[in-house]
Design goal:
The complex is a heterodimer of chains A (about 110) and B (about 110).
Chain A: E1 4-7, E2 10-13, E3 19-25, E4 32-38, E5 44-51, E6 57-58, E7 67-73, E8 76-81, E9 90-96, E10 99-100, E11 104-108
Parallel strand pairs in A: 2-11
Antiparallel strand pairs in A: 1-3, 3-8, 4-5, 4-9, 5-6, 7-8, 9-10, 9-11
Chain B: E1 4-7, E2 10-14, E3 19-25, E4 32-38, E5 45-51, E6 56-59, E7 62-67, E8 72-77, E9 86-92, E10 103-104, E11 108-113
Classes of the chains: A mainly beta (about 110), B mainly beta (about 110).
Chain lengths: ~110, ~110
């Protein structure tokens, strides 16, 4: 089946800094990837759809300038949390072809 | 947009008993319904899925049923084992052939006790 790799698995950053998360499809080309956010003991909420070669499609309520998505190749999508604040602390997880990456636990201090 | 509701939020069963988790969806255009198992701190893992042209699908101890008319689908786990303990999520989407924008249910925490 599809294999999706995500890095880093954990990151702690200072408030006001930016963090980049990478999502790679390892054995297939993904023209579309999805980014989700999951708070503790809650469900996965779709943030945006990452489209190779074009702009991402953001869900209602998700700030596109806050969560920058770049899908420059058929195997890589990146999510950058800009000017992170403690309320951005969460578990971020990508998916492609219904398989998920291992997730990134972001803690902003 | 799609709205998926899932019940119960927590479920405790004894080892060997069956567990049933139910979900409803709102968008009649949805045609793909996967179920995921998520252990603490780990990625969701696809355990079974069903498409709208099928009413039931079974894989060993796991089965899923779909009622398109009523817009609900259910996960059935038989002969539960302690390693079945996890959070289970249902989801619904309109499958395009290559990618699915999933709307998830709120999750069910299953605890299998000895």
């Amino acid at each position: 089946g599809a294999v999706v790799s995500q890095h880093p698995s954990r990151v702690i950053c200072k408030s006001g800094t930016s963090v980049k998360i990478e999502c790679r499809s390892l054995d297939f080309q993904a023209t579309t990837m999805f980014w989700y956010r999951q708070f503790p003991k809650q469900s996965l909420m779709l943030m945006a759809t990452s489209n190779e070669g074009s702009k991402a499609t953001y869900e209602q309520g998700v700030e596109k300038d806050k969560f920058l998505i770049n899908h420059a190749s058929l195997t890589l999508s990146t999510l950058t949390v800009t000017s992170a604040h403690p309320e951005d602390s969460s578990f971020y997880i990508c998916s492609a072809r219904d398989d998920f990456g291992s997730g990134t636990r972001l803690t902003v201090v | 947009g799609e709205n998926v509701e899932q019940h119960p939020s927590t479920l405790s069963v004894q080892e060997g008993d069956s567990a049933v988790i139910k979900c409803t969806y709102s968008d009649s255009a949805s045609n793909y319904f996967p179920w995921y198992k998520q252990e603490l701190g780990k990625r969701p893992q696809l355990i079974i899925d069903i498409r709208s042209n099928v009413g039931e699908k079974k894989d060993q101890r796991i089965a899923v049923t779909l009622n398109k008319t009523a817009k609900h689908f259910s996960l059935h786990i038989t002969e539960t084992q302690p390693e079945d303990s996890a959070v289970y999520f249902c989801a619904a989407s309109i499958y395009t052939g290559t990618a699915s924008k999933l709307t998830f249910g709120t999750g069910t925490r299953l605890q299998v006790t000895l």
